[in-house]
Amino acid sequence: MRTYCALQMDFGCYDKDSGEVECYLEIHCDTGTSCAFTIHMPNPEAAGCVERFATFMSLLLVIITFPFSLFECFKVVQEFERAVIFRLGRLRKGGARGPGLFFVLPCIDTYRKVDLRTVSFDVPPQEVLTRDSVTVAVDAVVYYRIKEPLNAVVRVADYSASTRLLAATTLRNVLGMRDLAQLLSDREAISHMMQANLDEATDPWGVEVERVEIKDVRLPVQLQRAMAAEAEADREARAKIIAAEGEIKASRALKEASLVMVDNPMALQLRYLQSLNTISAEKNSTIIFPFPMDFLRSFMSPGAGTSITHSPLPV
């Protein structure tokens, strides 16, 4: 015959004064039977005897050398700085200190200041092979700041040098996926992509990349000459097309003007006078201008006028 019972389990941990962590597991059955397990583990956060003795001696030194010890115990960090304190190699609780005044114990406490202001640096020129097999030299400017001082000190040995090396590598990787035309015309998109890649990689270090700008793109001399020749040929072709279009428009305008002059003969005479006025404004010593014979018809006899041709003569 089988017997069933409902089990109830309790589990918990608590710190003891001896610096150990005690964990227990209790199992209860509704039939009245129960069993318990107790596990003792050392607390990694608890200070050992040596650490306690060193802390006591440091406090004793502060008391003996008072008030001169205050000059070494009290530190000040600026508004844009934070201090990360270590006591005998362990990170102190409470996070980064600052801004303002904080207290450290001599001989056992060490601290590092972290600047929270935005820092900029130039990425050295990188020889990059684009996707269309063109070698170019590109340099950039990166702006970053520290958003987590604890991670910047604990998780990376030198966040500044690491960020610089990562920026140079990211610049080569991003530009290697672009053509030369995209590199020259779409710098903003390349900057945003590089910023996103850098920010994602430096986030565990407590570093935030705020902005990336492509500073300069240097092409080989032979490629510059080829591109200049191509651009010059393109401009000449466009100039010829524009000149041809201008000739077409001018010919149409002349055609319309000739039709107006045929309908009104005096318009041709006014055009002669306008041309003469334009030439005389240049202060030339000799002016050759065709004079229409129609102006002399009123001064000639009717018989003589019939023998005179109507072609203009130079005066």
User: What is the 3D form?
Assistant: elongated
Structure class:
alpha+beta
Count of strand segments: 13
Task: Give the strand content.
Answer: 25-35%
Give the overall pLDDT as a whole number.
76
The parts where pLDDT drops under 50 for at least 5 residues are 39-44, 304-315
Number of H/I helices: 9
Q: Percentage of helical residues?
A: 40-55%
Order of helices and strands: EEEHHEEEEEEEHHHHEHHEHE
Major sheet details: 3 strands, antiparallel
**What Rg is obtained from the alpha carbons, in whole angstroms?**
46 Å
Distance separating the two termini: 145 Å
The largest beta-sheet arranges its strands as 1-2-3
InterPro entries: Band-7_stomatin-like, Band_7, Band_7/SPFH_dom_sf, Stomatin_HflK_fam
Keywords: Membrane
Protein name: Band 7 domain-containing protein
Subcellular location: Membrane
In brief:
This protein is α+β, with helices and mostly antiparallel strands and 315 residues long. It is 41% helix and 29% strand.
Characterise this structure.
It comes from Pieris macdunnoughi. It is found in: Membrane. Residues 72-231 form the Band domain. InterPro entries: Band-7_stomatin-like, Band_7, Band_7/SPFH_dom_sf, Stomatin_HflK_fam. Keywords: Membrane. It is a single chain. The chain has helices at residues 49-64, 70-73, 149-154, 159-175, 180-185, 187-202, 221-263, 266-280, 302-307; strands spanning 7-15, 20-29, 34-42, 74-77, 81-87, 90-91, 100-103, 109-115, 119-129, 135-146, 207-218, 290-291, 313-314. The protein has 315 residues and is of the alpha+beta class. Among the domains are: 8-115, no CATH class; 118-219, Tetrahydropterin Synthase, Chain A (2-Layer Sandwich). The strands form five sheets. It has a three-stranded antiparallel sheet, with no helix packed on it. Strands 6-5-8 form a three-stranded antiparallel sheet. Strands 9-10-11 form a three-stranded antiparallel sheet. Helix 4 crosses helix 6. The longest helix is centred in the last third of the chain and has 43 residues, at 221-263.
